[in-house]
């Protein structure tokens, strides 16, 4: 029987991020026991780059301080292969010793004064456009592959150093050849030259990634792929600081993502969203690995202290719900806090028992939540958190709150992916290319619906303001502002009560509209944000802005009789005339909810999405109490649906502090099954089959209780059995 490539069978992983003391102190038998206990199928070992763990023939490959005469990589690989594990060799390619700089100064990044750039004493950053990779890294990678025959090579810094403009001679020459321009003098987003440099800089990194990919597959075979570290969340605006995963997707049969731990602003559901987004880009069957940290974040990283088991497992469960394979990450081969070894143990065992339901499946969703790499770079810039990220986060959190399944897509995928959806959500995506706008237009012409917020579509592909707004014309709105608003973030409004710019509200002017379901007992709703001044002859304003009024002292905190509404709509809704619906949020409730998680804002966003989509078009519903994150998948070949439900009820919002789970239920679940005749419904965690009934194309059943998670398997008959 032909052996499958490693990325088709190695689904449970472990990474030991080797410390320099490990060759002296680490007992590999401890790790062999860990691998067996947790049913590990693959491991990642540090090999070379910043620190080398083998006797390299290259004089400029720094060796671990306590390596001595030992070949630690060989010992580690042998231990892993004795356990039947796949092995990925990890390198770190973006820094080299100062001694090498003396020999090849042309290989290194330079500042404007021509000095090498450094972050670590004794090491300098290497330039992706210089000769370092061909002259140094080619030999190092060749040694690793020929000596140890790893299944793949992973690079912690796959796209080289980031965060600054390199002024080395190679970059000066190559940018001039590419653009006819000189390198920009500094980061200036008003400069077209700087934006062209950003595009060129990213292009150079993709080319270097491709170079590595060809190197590793050429030396080790087509399955010895080169893996970088990706992250969907665009937390920083500069193009050189992020990896554009769409550009890299053509190289990978497997993907490694950098989401080791939950950060402050994000919930557990962000990890499942990251997995879904990666599968949309790289394909449903691509292996996605995320090395989850076993160490603590309380609130800062404590590399040698164990994280709480409940926190780690919640993060891993969320990853599994997004189609990410489980992998634990340890700093150093010696762990004095031995509780770290227990982190993930339950998840690995659960994964082994349910593996057949976690792969070869497709997500079931018809709402596309759009993000844009160019929007991050050219609109978000250095203030990306407030301009783009918080808007996306707010919509994502609202969809979870409303238990609305969605698929995350990049704006460049709209043309390709829109056929699977009935609704697109565009949260403050100011930068849209002409091609992307045309794809949205085509989607609407075919009967698709839209939920659009803020500045969406106001800027061109380079982030400069448009003279006309095609998306607005399609929606039927007219803007008074001709460029995006700049929201002034107030981290603590209580400290300056005299500033009441964002002490504002909206007035509900169409209380009977379905968007206001649940708001029947109020005429106003808070905003504490900004609102675009727009008009429309086609869409109806279902709420209008109330101008700001004083907060303090309380005696003067009231609306003037003549200012109980501004006359400008805050939310507009209506039909497209082509079979779809549109909701436009002139008021930035996506930002407000992402920033505050205030329940009213989340409910408003959910109502808007459900109305624009049509609740009858939701592929499933979950009715019951609790904060649940539900994902539905289909395994057509096996004739079954798979639903993963995560219980986040009562989990702390602060990372690293989750201790226990609080059961909720009963939950009434309905799934749209069409003409399929259901055979059985099994709750895998509860270990029982559930009673169900079918009616009008829906299967309905009740889950009495869910503690941490539940995996539901809904099987249907084939045509012959169902007769």
Brief summary:
With 723 residues, the chain is α/β, with parallel strands linked by helices.
Folded structure, characterized:
It is built from 18 helices and 34 strands. By secondary structure, the protein is α/β, with parallel strands linked by helices. The protein has 3 domains: 6-258, TIM Barrel; 367-478 and 493-617, Class I glutamine amidotransferase (GATase) domain (Rossmann fold, 3-Layer(aba) Sandwich); 620-716, Sandwich (Immunoglobulin-like).
Q: State the CATH architecture of the largest domain.
A: Alpha-Beta Barrel
CATH class of the largest domain: Alpha Beta
Helix/sheet category: alpha/beta
Low-confidence stretches: none
Proportion in helices: 25-40%
Report how far the terminal alpha carbons are from each other.
Answer: 38 Å
Strand content: 15-25%
Main sheet makeup: 9 strands, parallel
Helix and strand arrangement:
Elements lengths: L12 E5 L4 H4 L2 H10 L4 E7 L23 H11 L3 E6 L3 E3 H6 L19 E3 L6 H17 L3 E4 L13 H11 L12 H29 L5 E2 L1 E2 L14 H4 L5 E4 L11 H14 L4 E7 L1 E3 L3 E6 L2 H13 L3 E7 L13 H9 L8 E2 L3 E5 L1 H8 L3 H18 L5 E4 L3 H4 L5 E5 L6 H12 L3 E5 L16 H6 L2 E2 L25 E4 L15 E3 L7 E2 L4 E7 L22 E7 L5 E5 L3 H8 L2 H15 L6 E4 L4 E8 L4 E8 L19 E6 L5 E6 L4 E3 L1 E4 L2 E6 L5 E8 L7
Parallel strand pairs: 1-2, 1-13, 2-3, 3-6, 6-7, 8-9, 9-10, 10-13, 15-16, 15-17, 17-18, 18-25
Antiparallel strand pairs: 4-5, 11-12, 14-27, 19-22, 20-21, 20-23, 23-24, 24-25, 26-29, 27-28, 28-34, 29-33, 30-31, 30-34, 32-33
Helix pairs in contact: 5-7, 9-10, 12-13, 13-17, 13-18, 17-18
């Amino acid at each position: 029987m032909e052996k499958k490539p490693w990325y088709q069978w190695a689904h449970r992983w472990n990474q030991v991020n080797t410390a320099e003391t490990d060759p002296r102190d680490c007992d590999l038998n401890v790790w062999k026991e860990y691998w067996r206990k947790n049913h590990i199928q693959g491991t990642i070992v540090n090999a070379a780059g910043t620190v080398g763990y083998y006797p390299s023939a290259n004089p400029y490959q720094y060796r671990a301080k306590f390596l001595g005469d030992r070949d630690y990589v060989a010992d580690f690989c042998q231990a892993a292969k004795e356990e039947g594990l796949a092995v990925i060799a990890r390198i770190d390619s973006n820094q080299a010793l100062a001694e090498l700089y003396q020999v090849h100064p042309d290989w290194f990044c330079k500042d404007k004064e021509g000095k090498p750039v450094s972050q670590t004493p004794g090491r300098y950053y290497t330039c992706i456009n210089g000769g370092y990779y061909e002259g140094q890294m080619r030999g190092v990678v060749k040694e690793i592959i020929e000596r140890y025959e790893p299944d793949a090579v992973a690079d912690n810094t796959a796209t080289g150093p980031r965060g600054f403009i390199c002024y080395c001679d190679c970059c000066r020459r190559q940018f001039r050849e590419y653009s006819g321009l000189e390198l920009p003098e500094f980061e200036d987003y008003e400069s077209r030259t700087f934006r062209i440099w950003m595009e060129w800089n990213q292009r150079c990194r993709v080319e270097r990634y491709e170079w590595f990919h060809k190197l590793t597959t050429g030396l080790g075979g087509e399955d010895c792929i080169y893996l970088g570290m990706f992250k969907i969340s665009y937390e920083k605006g500069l193009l050189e600081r992020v990896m554009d995963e769409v550009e890299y997707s053509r190289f990978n049969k497997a993907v490694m993502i950098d989401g080791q731990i939950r950060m402050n602003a994000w919930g557990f559901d962000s990890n499942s969203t990251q997995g879904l987004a990666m599968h949309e880009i790289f394909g449903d069957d691509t292996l996605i690995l995320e090395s989850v940290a076993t160490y603590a974040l309380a609130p800062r990283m404590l590399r040698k202290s164990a994280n709480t088991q409940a926190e780690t497992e919640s993060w891993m469960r969320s990853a599994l719900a997004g189609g990410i394979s489980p992998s634990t990450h340890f700093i150093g081969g010696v762990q004095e806090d031995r509780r770290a070894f227990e982190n993930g143990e339950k998840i690995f065992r659960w994964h082994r028992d349910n593996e057949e339901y976690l792969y070869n499946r497709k997500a079931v969703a018809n709402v596309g939540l759009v993000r844009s790499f160019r929007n991050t770079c050219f609109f978000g810039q250095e203030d990306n958190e407030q301009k783009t990220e918080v808007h996306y986060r707010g919509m994502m959190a609202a969809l979870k709150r409303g238990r609305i399944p969605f698929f995350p897509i990049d704006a460049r995928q709209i043309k390709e992916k829109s056929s699977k959806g009935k609704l697109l959500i565009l949260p403050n995506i100011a930068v849209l290319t002409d091609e992307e706008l045309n794809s949205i237009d085509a989607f609407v012409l075919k009967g698709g619906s839209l939920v659009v917020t803020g500045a969406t579509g106001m800027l061109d592909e380079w982030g400069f303001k448009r003279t006309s707004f095609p998306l607005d014309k399609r929606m039927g709105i007219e803007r008074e502002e001709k460029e995006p608003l700049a929201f002034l973030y107030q981290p603590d409004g209580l400290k300056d009560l005299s500033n009441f710019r964002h002490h504002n509200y909206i007035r509900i002017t169409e209380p009977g509209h379905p968007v206001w379901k649940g708001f029947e007992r109020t005429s106003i709703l808070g905003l504490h944000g900004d609102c675009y001044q727009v008009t429309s002859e086609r869409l109806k304003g279902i709420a209008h802005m109330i101008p700001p009024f004083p907060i303090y002292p309380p005696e003067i905190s009231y609306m003037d009789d003549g200012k109980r509404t501004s006359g400008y709509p805050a939310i507009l809704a209506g039909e497209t005339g082509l079979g779809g619906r549109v909701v436009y949020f002139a008021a930035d409730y996506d930002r407000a909810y992402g920033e505050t998680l205030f329940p009213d804002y989340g409910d408003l966003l959910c109502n808007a999405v459900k109305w624009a989509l049509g609740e009858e078009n939701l592929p499933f519903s979950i009715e019951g109490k609790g904060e649940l994150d539900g994902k539905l998948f289909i395994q057509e070949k096996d004739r079954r649906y798979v639903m993963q439900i995560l219980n986040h009820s009562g989990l702390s919002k602060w990372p690293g502090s989750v201790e226990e789970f609080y059961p909720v239920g009963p939950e009434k679940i309905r799934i749209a099954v069409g003409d399929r005749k259901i055979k059985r419904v099994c709750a895998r965690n509860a270990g029982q089959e559930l009673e169900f009934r079918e009616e009008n194309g829906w299967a309905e059943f009740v889950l009495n209780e869910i503690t941490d998670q539940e995996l539901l398997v809904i099987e249907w008959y084939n045509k012959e059995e169902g007769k």
